[in-house]
Automatic annotation (TrEMBL), chains A, B:
<feature type="domain" description="Amidohydrolase-related">
    <location>
        <begin position="75"/>
        <end position="357"/>
    </location>
</feature>
<dbReference type="Pfam" id="PF01979">
    <property type="entry name" value="Amidohydro_1"/>
</dbReference>
<dbReference type="GO" id="GO:0006146">
    <property type="term" value="P:adenine catabolic process"/>
</dbReference>
<dbReference type="InterPro" id="IPR026912">
    <property type="entry name" value="Adenine_deam_C"/>
</dbReference>
<keyword id="KW-0464">Manganese</keyword>
<protein>
    <recommendedName>
        <fullName>Adenine deaminase</fullName>
        <ecNumber>3.5.4.2</ecNumber>
    </recommendedName>
</protein>
<dbReference type="InterPro" id="IPR006680">
    <property type="entry name" value="Amidohydro-rel"/>
</dbReference>
<feature type="domain" description="Adenine deaminase C-terminal">
    <location>
        <begin position="420"/>
        <end position="570"/>
    </location>
</feature>
<dbReference type="InterPro" id="IPR032466">
    <property type="entry name" value="Metal_Hydrolase"/>
</dbReference>
<comment type="similarity">
    <text>Belongs to the metallo-dependent hydrolases superfamily. Adenine deaminase family.</text>
</comment>
<dbReference type="InterPro" id="IPR006679">
    <property type="entry name" value="Adenine_deam"/>
</dbReference>
<dbReference type="Pfam" id="PF13382">
    <property type="entry name" value="Adenine_deam_C"/>
</dbReference>
<dbReference type="GO" id="GO:0000034">
    <property type="term" value="F:adenine deaminase activity"/>
</dbReference>
<keyword id="KW-0378">Hydrolase</keyword>
<dbReference type="InterPro" id="IPR011059">
    <property type="entry name" value="Metal-dep_hydrolase_composite"/>
</dbReference>
């Protein structure tokens, strides 16, 4: 085992080699000739040869190398960085995710394993740490701060401050993930404050999540040491937070897209206080639009300065998370680089990682996923602890509240009460089935605005407790759909009559597939089409929108395992 | 002894108190009412009440407090930060230095104890760490990287990578100080690279010092992971370094003043890549001009945006050195604040430290200096290890090189050779006497441009090896002056005939006085006046300029204990 000092000495020798190449005394391993490159320090396009040695950029100027790549004036960027993502939303393993985003120029992502932690606790975090080890995109982690997201949620795990603390020792764990229980912070909940102080004690960053939190509560939230927010959907909210010192993660993902509204932040004096994130990327969005390249391309198309947009997607993220040696094209930085054709098309032509090109002629990275501890792998396949359901489990309840969906929004409104399913009036039965601990808890309510005319739709609930949510036109079909999800050990099921019309199996922790991304995408798109075929309104994502109905932190009504919850009043109805 | 977790829990409870005040549920300890304040995040002047609790800012808006201070619209700034200073240059103890700068709004300085380390090694660093413990200005340290500064210097200590390494454990040690042996880096000297890698291994910043280093050597220097430079005296050099990723410390001190030349850096897109430092502040400069307030005032008077100038003096420094909770007026930041009247006069009216006002009505901070380990204190008073000198020690040597001083510069030019003193032609004898290790080494040469007509001037040599430098019109007076420095255990002596006409005793490590700053200043000014009285040219600082003559890193000729050294050719003449 190499001691610290032996490692320092070894690195000093490597550095010596780098410096000889930098000084031009020996040819560099690789030189990217005739490059235009984004200089994130002077906010301009620089020009020159980029010399690489021992995995790092060592010089920019006039160089010759043992190998050369002619950039022919095209543009070299630092590899792109996603500042906040829940990998689980891609429904595939990290390996599949990385294979999808690497050709789009992503070099690193900062993941919050909130979903899998809600199912498997620290084992879930450990699972993702192992599943991301040695991948060609660096996956950093922020520890989930709110498992369960609120006291209202029946999650598979409950992680207090001491439970997550040992995980800070992992070299890819950066800090504390989005503190979504903002009211808990403002109230001063002690366990939450201990999580925050533990992060501060270790000098780690803490991510925030506090949409539209007004003053003075916002001051309190920021005074707790929460350094960022990615939930800003309008400029006013973003500026209020920016002025108080928070870094704004401009989110442009699948479920929420705030780039256009926040575009003014990409100009001085705000641009250095912002970076980009996706939060959630679904399979079709990853395949159709790409990843961080899509955000930068879109920002530029909306009028942002290309240099500042690239900087937000690279250096600003690296600086915010103290990712040393990342996010710039400059001597001493890692040779994680992306070549694009031009700022308008923003087509990624090659990606280097540690100075090595990683795309094959087909544009696909090579390699294999890392092995995972059999105990964790086995545990991830055994996360459903719930008995067979019957129609009676979904019946009765008397006059229950009706949750009104709002077109194009994830907020809801109260729409009175109902005592029966009435598809003609778009009154559907909805249930959240506790599935982690055999509690038998099933919360019932009604849903209006979804549009289903026949059958039932059941899905894992990604946000946040990952119980089963099922919506149907009959209790029998609801039970059948939910039972099929359980049989799959997790997944999405569109049910009609006595059979599944479409399904997506998600056997890893009940939230991720073990199939390739294009396969999962095809299954999912077929299921969506079938759900729409059964009446689900166009413009609604049949599964994602459903999953939002169970998050008890978004106003005004949500469905929990205890029944319909009034988020504004903070009580069960 | 409080465990980590007990500390986290205690802090969580304190944080809870802060948040209740932030949320306006209880009155804050202190509210600065009606403040204009510099918002370093949005680069604008904000307005509101600033609420403080438990030593921290907790909210900005509308607040009532148990105590209130009416700012009446005047301007609140974060406490100012000096990004690089050698405290030893003030010739007084840190306590005296702090008493001088605190009324000028300084909240923190980043010190490089290079001088005392050259005398006392790690004991010298430890001495300054102890002498700065608990002071009302936070003194952080960068470990001196080049002791001795070059292989040419006969210093009192030789600190290799392993010798300085344990000091990183001290909570106020931030990183590795200015790597002035830039040629050693470019050459790849292994001990120097080990120092760099050790700092990188610990995630610590490394300061640079590489005036006018051309490409590709500059690329190599930066590729070594050296993140800043404070030696830029023109814009071209600064921009070359900034483009390669270095942070530029704009220096405006006593010996070197680069602010005017570098003023364009205080505008976009460069302003966030810059901060301020003084490098060296001498007693009269501290007393006459102040400290960081002087730099900001001057920057504004030269046309800089006041907000950006304040930001360079606060937030940019805190961010560069990862000084958490410093450098901004925002919730969660420390209550280290400065009240000024306006941006033009920039008069500091009050200073708060941890939310407590620290200036008495007379404007002087109260308190007492920290105690120092008697072993270190005793060691600091016994640093001269050299016998009594005689005129013969300074005689002979034959035809020696003449070092030509350049008016207004610290560079020198070769001016031929001489075999004798000739005050009429301004040819003076100069000597550097090794004083650390009884080696008996005395380097001899001649000096032209100093102007002394009678007597001798002897001084400690602040930069870098702190040997004795003496210049005289006769060998007898040179010996007498040097002997008096030795008797004082360090200091500055102006000698004529058989007596000291003026002297400053510097008994702490031979480089610092134990007297109050105004006393030292008076002694020093009297000595300067006497030196000028004996002929030293106006426009020359008789002692400081002399000390520069012994730094073997500034072109072209320097005097060392081995004789005259050609810096350009890197050889003794």
């Amino acid at each position: 085992m190499e001691s610290d000092w032996e490692r320092i000495q070894r690195r000093a020798r490597v550095r010596g080699r780098m410096l000889r190449a930098a000084a031009g005394e020996v040819p560099a391993e690789l030189v990217l000739k005739n490059a235009a490159y984004v200089n994130v320090f002077s906010n301009e396009l620089g020009h020159g040869d980029i010399a690489l040695e021992a995995g790092h950029i060592v010089g920019i100027g006039s160089y010759t190398g043992r190998r050369a790549y002619d950039c022919a004036g095209r543009i070299v960027l630092p590899a792109l960085i996603d500042g906040h993502i829940h990998l689980e939303s891609a429904l595939v393993t990290p390996w599949e995710f990385v294979r999808a985003v690497l050709p789009h120029g992503t070099g690193a992502v900062v993941a919050d394993p909130h979903e899998i932690a809600n199912v498997m606790g620290t084992d879930g975090i450990e699972y993702l740490l192992q599943a991301t080890e040695g991948l060609p995109v660096d996956v950093y982690f922020m520890l989930p701060s709110c498992v369960p997201a609120t006291a209202m949620e029946a999650s598979g795990a409950r992680l207090d401050a001491r439970a997550i603390d040992p995980l800070y020792r992992h070299p890819r764990v950066l800090g504390l993930g989005e503190v979504m229980d903002f009211m808990g912070v403002v109230r001063g909940d002690l366990d939450l404050l201990e999580k925050l102080e533990a992060a501060h004690h270790r000098g780690r960053p803490v991510d925030g999540h506090a949409p539209d939190l007004p003053q003075p509560a916002l001051s309190a939230y920021v005074a707790a040491g929460i350094g960022s927010d990615h939930e800003c959907h309008d400029l006013e909210d973003a500026l209020a937070k920016l002025r108080l010192g928070q870094t704004i993660l401009i989110r442009e993902g699948t479920a929420a897209r705030n780039l256009e509204a926040l575009l003014p932040l990409l100009s001085p004096p705000y641009c250095d206080r912002c970076l980009f994130c996706t939060d959630d990327k679904h399979p079709n969005d990853l395949l159709d639009r790409g990843h961080m390249d899509h955000i930068v391309r879109r920002a530029i198309s909306l009028g942002a300065d290309p240099i500042l947009a690239v900087k937000a997607a690279t250096y600003n993220a690296a600086r915010h998370f103290s990712l040393r040696g990342r996010g710039a094209v400059a001597p001493g930085y890692r040779g994680d680089l992306v070549l694009i054709d031009n700022f308008t098309d923003f087509t990624v032509e090659q990606v280097w990682r540690g100075g090595v090109p990683v795309l094959t002629p087909e544009g696909v990275p090579e390699g294999a996923p890392p092995g995972i501890d059999p105990r964790l792998e086995g545990g991830a396949r055994r996360t459903f602890h719930v008995g067979v359901l019957s129609p009676a489990d979904f019946s009765g309840g008397g006059w229950l509240p009706v949750i009104g969906m709002v077109a194009g929004e994830i907020t809801t409104v109260p729409m009175g009460r109902s005592d029966r399913i009435d598809p003609a009036r778009d009154i559907l039965k909805a249930a959240v089935v506790e599935r982690h601990r055999h509690t038998g808890a099933i919360g019932l309510g009604f849903l209006k605005g979804y549009g289903l005319k026949e059958g039932a739709v059941a899905t894992y609930v990604s946000h946040d407790a990952n119980n089963i949510i099922v919506v149907g036109t009959s209790e029998a079909e609801m039970a059948a759909a939910a039972n099929r999800v359980i049989a799959l050990k997790g997944g999405i099921v569109v049910w009609r009559g006595d059979r599944a019309e479409a399904e997506v199996a998600l056997p890893i922790a009940g939230i991720m597939s073990d199939q390739a991304l294009p396969v999962v995408n095809e299954q999912l798109e077929r299921a969506k089409a079938r759900a729409h075929g059964l009446g689900v309104r166009r413009g609604i994502d049949p599964f994602m929108t459903l999953s939002f109905m169970a998050i008890p932190v978004i106003p005004s009504l949500r469905l929990t395992t205890g029944g319909v919850f009034d988020v504004t009043a903070q009580r069960l109805l």
